[in-house]
TrEMBL record:
<protein>
    <submittedName>
        <fullName>RhoGAP domain containing protein</fullName>
    </submittedName>
</protein>
<dbReference type="GO" id="GO:0005096">
    <property type="term" value="F:GTPase activator activity"/>
</dbReference>
<dbReference type="GO" id="GO:0005737">
    <property type="term" value="C:cytoplasm"/>
</dbReference>
<dbReference type="GO" id="GO:0007264">
    <property type="term" value="P:small GTPase-mediated signal transduction"/>
</dbReference>
<dbReference type="InterPro" id="IPR000198">
    <property type="entry name" value="RhoGAP_dom"/>
</dbReference>
<dbReference type="Pfam" id="PF00620">
    <property type="entry name" value="RhoGAP"/>
</dbReference>
<feature type="domain" description="Rho-GAP">
    <location>
        <begin position="1"/>
        <end position="197"/>
    </location>
</feature>
<dbReference type="InterPro" id="IPR008936">
    <property type="entry name" value="Rho_GTPase_activation_prot"/>
</dbReference>
C-alpha cells in the first residue's frame, strides 16, 4: 500500500519535519547546490522529477545514483510545496493577508521580523519547523555570490508555492498585485531569517528516522474524508446483505446462500 508521503501535510509526519523536505535539502547541501548558479530557477528533467517524487511518495530514497542533478532535486522540493498549495498551503490561507501586509506596514526590519515571528508562532510546530528549515536553506543560497539567487529571485520561484489565498477566492484583477506582495513577503522572510527564527532550535529529534517511517507507513485519513468513510461503514452495517462470521466459513456443513438472477 502506498503511504503517500509526498502528498502529506507537515502535521502527518508524527510531529516532525517532513522527511521529503529534510532529505531533499540534505542532498542539496551534500551536492553544494547553494553555490550552483540559478539553483531553484533552472529546471531539471520533468521525468526525473516525477520519478523522484514518486519514490519519495513511497519512502526514503536509499540510492540517489539516478538523481544526482541538483536541478532535479531542487525542483522536486519546489514540487512538494507547489502540490500542497492547492489544498493546504504551508502558510494556512487565513494568514495570507497578514503575511503580505507585514513588509509594507512595518517601520523597519526589526518590526517586520517581530511580526513574522509572531505569525510563525501561530502555526503548528510542524509547519513552523518546516518553514524554519526551508527558509534557512534559502537564506544560505541567497548568501552565495555564485548562485546569483538573491532573496528576491528566490521569492519569485517560491512565494506562489508557500502562501496564497484560498483557491477560487482570487480575483484575476488582483492577481498581479498579490504576486508582487507574495514575493515581497517571502523575500523579507529569507533576508531576515536570522531574526525571525533565532529562537527555534532544530535538533535531531525533529527529523524523521527510519523507525518513525515504519509507524507512519499507513496512509493517513484526511479529516475531509471522514464523513464519507462513516457513511460507507453505516451503509455496510445497515445493508440487507447478511454478515457471515468467519468461523462459519470453516464449518463444512455451512453452505453460502445463493441468489438466482433471472436474465431476460
Amino acid at each position: 500500500m502506498n503511504p503517500q508521503y509526498f502528498s502529506r501535510s507537515p502535521e502527518q509526519f508524527g510531529g516532525k519535519i517532513p522527511f521529503v523536505v529534510s532529505d531533499l535539502i540534505e542532498k542539496l547541501r551534500e551536492l553544494d547546490a547553494a553555490n550552483v548558479e540559478g539553483i531553484f530557477r533552472l529546471s531539471g528533467s520533468a521525468r526525473d522529477i516525477s520519478d523522484l517524487a514518486n519514490m519519495l511518495d513511497h519512502g526514503r530514497v536509499k540510492d540517489w545514483s539516478n538523481f544526482s542533478n541538483v536541478h532535479t532535486i531542487s525542483c522536486t522540493l519546489k514540487k512538494y510545496f507547489r502540490d500542497m498549495v492547492t489544498y493546504d498551503a504551508l502558510l494556512p490561507y487565513e494568514y495570507f493577508q497578514t503575511a503580505i501586509d507585514i513588509p509594507n506596514k512595518s517601520a523597519n526590519d526589526d518590526e517586520a521580523a517581530a511580526k513574522f515571528k509572531e505569525l510563525m508562532n501561530k502555526l503548528t510546530p510542524a509547519r513552523r519547523n518546516t518553514f524554519a528549515v526551508l527558509i534557512k536553506y534559502l537564506f544560505e543560497v541567497s548568501q552565495s555570490p555564485t548562485s546569483k539567487m538573491h532573496p528576491q529571485n528566490l521569492a519569485i520561484v517560491f512565494a506562489p508555492n508557500l502562501l496564497t489565498k484560498q483557491p477560487g477566492k482570487i480575483d484575476p484583477e488582483e492577481a498581479l498585485l498579490f504576486n508582487a506582495q507574495q514575493n515581497k513577503a517571502i523575500a523579507t522572510m529569507i533576508r531576515l531569517y536570522e531574526k525571525i527564527f533565532d529562537d527555534i532550535n532544530i535538533g535531531p529529534e525533529l527529523f524523521v528516522t527510519d523507525e518513525d517511517l515504519e509507524i507512519l507507513a499507513s496512509p493517513p485519513i484526511n479529516a475531509r474524508d471522514l464523513p464519507r468513510i462513516i457513511e460507507l461503514r453505516n451503509l455496510r452495517k445497515e445493508s440487507l446483505i447478511p454478515f457471515v462470521p468467519g468461523e462459519m466459513l470453516a464449518d463444512p456443513a455451512f453452505v453460502r446462500p445463493t441468489r438466482v438472477v433471472a436474465v431476460e
